[in-house]
Amino acid sequence: MINLLDGSYSLLEFDTITSGSQQYYRLYSEFPLWHELGNIGFSALPVKWTGISSLKKPFFVKGFMPYLTKEYQMNHYYANAPFALLNYNSGGTQDLNGQLIKAVFSRPVAPGIRLSAFLDFVTSPGHYVNQNASQSSLTLNLSITKPRYKLIAGIDRMQASLEENGGVSTPGDALGYYVDPGSVSVNLKGAASKLGWTRFRGRQEFNIFEPKTANSIPDSIPILIPDSIPNSIPGSISDSIPDAIRDSILQVSVIQDSITLESVSPDTIQNSSRAKLIHSLDYQLIDRYYKDSQTESGDFYLNNFVNDKEAQDSVNFKYFENRLGLANTGFMGDSIKWIFEGGVQHKLIHWGSNSLSGSIQQMGLYGLGELTNESWQARVRAEVNLLGYGFGNYLLNMTGNYFLPDTPWMLTMDLRSESQKPDLFLQAVSGNHDQWFNNLSSQQEQVIKVKASNNVLKMSGELGMSFISNLIYFDEYALPSQTGTSTFVMSADIAKYFVVGPLRSNNNILFQYTPAEEIPLPLVVASTSTYMHHDIHFKNTGGLLELEYGLDIRYSTAYQGYAYRPSTGAFYLQNEIRLGNYPYLDVFLTLRVKRTRFFIRYEHVNSDLTGGNYFPVVNYPVKKRFLKYGVYWHFYD
Hints:
single chain, 22-stranded antiparallel beta barrel
């Protein structure tokens, strides 16, 4: 995993383990509960506070961001031989439960040149009328490492074609053990939306002076992760481990059936300052198209500003960011490594909404700094806009990690302060059903997070506090609004992984509180994956079968929640009903033989048996009980 802000590496383990194989859907492998629309592939928001909006993330794509890698993150495998992973899962011959295909491929192309490719494809008709979803994403990442030059670049392309049914007309009609979801009436029958998202990102580094060593080792070394961290532990301590805490630096390689680590002596690293010229860019092209027929949507939408027979709305967004800077790396004495980078950044943004369009520019400065030794790491990141739209907006982020001596405990602190202008589509939209023209001011947020992790006890805990001013949100009329006041969000997140004989239990509980009605949050979000693990050895063949069976449970307390506006793709406030206070129960079985894994999963077993409040969003029920099965293969050449 590569941080595009500073070019640093952290260890990304190749997915070959049995545990967690049943979590086939990308969303639930990241967070247990989402504001979702009842079918895979649709827009979804996690049921937690994720921060204020930013200029480069239009509100209508925020719900699709979990399907792509994070903003400044690029996944890349450094392997000495080609390898691949293929995952396919389905839900029966009618396939109302959806099919997913996931493929990963990586190989060295030439000395110092490596390629990684990632493909995800989703298709699902869904259980209810006019709910079909088709989504695909393709990512190609390339790295080139030479003695005086390094390039990290990648291109992502995501497409989504979605039928928009506006939810069920009468929620009570969807309830009942014997109810056929296909017979339940929905609000929209001919509406649909399409989303296209192309993203190209890259970072290149030029060493200004000739290296004194002939070794072609990346300036940013993969960050070492302590041994014995289960992949499936939420909130594990696998993030931001200083690269100097061990006596050797590690790189990933593939040997036979597993990922192993190669040791590289630190003596091969030049122990003096190294100046580099840095250039990075980020280009994004986003288009969304929505259509419906007034004869089918007249009772659902109140307004028709452009055409009283049909809606054909389109929005487009182009974002181009360039950074040019200088970086230097060196050592203070024999134990502290320092890194500094700073320079100028320029942003050019074009936006359009039917007949409206415009362009803006920003010019500013950025800086990054880091100090690392054997027991601690401190980082700072800063940005300030000095010209153009959002003049004076800034970001200041400071993080620190400290390893308590002679203990497995790691302490982490994260401080962030920022002021951001809203994305341009919150200022103005011209659609058939929705129009607004605003002059929204900048939002501010200050964040404090403190985290403690213990690898031996396999647990972690985090306390967080966010102070927000001038919050922008979508009100009960699905229109952008701004508070003009200040509020806060408190959170406490605890994760614990238990092993008692063959019993495994992976648990997470999140507490959240805010007095702001504009931020609907449940007080508690909890999840557990509890299962039995057995290693079955075959004496005659020497083979091994890994077997796991158990249950996954997700739950939140009651809260106000959101409604959804298909014409704009916005999640907005509602006062109709309270959501949550409902457990989702899944049972599963997973098998692993050599390089092949298989799972079978019966989802939402308790549908209509423990109440009927299985609506993550108003009028959008989740699927009733259904069966999923899938298989994973991984290959090494």
